[in-house]
Amino acid sequence: MKRLTTKEKEIMDLYWKHGPMFVKELLEFYDEPRPHFNTLSTTVRILEKKGFLDHKQFGTSYQYFPTISERDYGRSSLTGIIKNYFDDSYLSAVSSFVKEEKISVDELKELIERIESADENSK
């Protein structure tokens, strides 16, 4: 899956939060000074080309909507990070967090308990 730029992620966050919208409606969520309509419209069309948005036509206007959920995008992003930066090893990723003190040993134990519990519930 392709990655989102910062501006694209900002727009996708609005679509994920508010659902289908016309670009004109999307513009209303921005504080002044708002981006120019054409700039926003161009970015929305790029998101559509990347496969993140699709549209329904209403006369000469297009209402855009997400084609992927925020959760699925997050999962895909995490998978890509694990693959590209941790040699496709979740163990290496978690070890890195422990070494850099981003996760405590107690939190790691809790995570293991949750995984074991989920595994038992799936049987």
- N→C terminal distance: 31 Å
pLDDT averaged residue by residue:
88
Alpha carbon gyration radius: 20 Å
What characterizes the major β-sheet?
3 strands, antiparallel
Strand content bin: 5-15%
Care to count the β-strands? Answer: 3
By secondary-structure content and strand pairing, the structural class works out as mainly alpha
Order of helices and strands: HEHHEEHHH
Tally of separate helices: 6
As residue ranges, the low-confidence spans are none
Strand arrangement across the biggest beta sheet: 1-3-2
**Looking at the structure, what is the overall shape?**
elongated
Helix residue percentage: 55-70%
In short:
The chain is mainly alpha-helical. The protein contains six helices and three strands; from the N terminus they run αβααββααα.
Task: Please name the defining characteristics of this protein.
elongated, three-stranded antiparallel sheet, mainly alpha, 61% helix, 123 residues
Could you describe the 3D structure shown?
This protein is mainly alpha-helical. It is 61% helix and 11% strand. The protein contains six helices and three strands, in the order αβααββααα. It has a three-stranded antiparallel beta sheet. β2 and β3 form a beta hairpin. The two termini are 31 Å apart. The model has no long low-confidence stretch (mean pLDDT 88).
Topology:
Layout (H helix, E strand, L loop, with lengths): L5 H13 L2 E2 H5 L9 H14 L2 E6 L2 E6 L3 H16 L4 H10 L5 H17 L2
Antiparallel strand pairs: 1-3, 2-3
